[in-house]
Amino acid sequence: MPNWGGGAKCAACEKTVYHAEEIQCNGRSFHKTCFICMSCRKGLDSTTVAAHESEIYCKSCYGKKYGPKGYGYGQGAGALSSDPPGQNADLQPHE
Description:
One of its GO terms (cellular component) is Z disc. It is a single chain. This protein is mainly beta. The protein contains 1 helix and 6 strands. The protein has one helix at about 60-65, and strands at about 10, 15, 20-25, 30, 50, 55-60.
């Protein structure tokens, strides 16, 4: 049977993607509804996508899975300080 419709195949669901509903990432085509994070299933767009090989993630899931590991990473904003070391020493109340 001939292949009518000739659009690209979606990388997620393998169905035909027509031009009006196509999103491209890393040379692959997706439906708008299939362009979601592989971990948390959140919808993605061109500013929130982070691709790794054939997988697509949101930036936060990508950082959790492929970001730096070890002590001091991923502690959140509470562990970060922009002050040089030792500068906060005189913040103790004086009596």
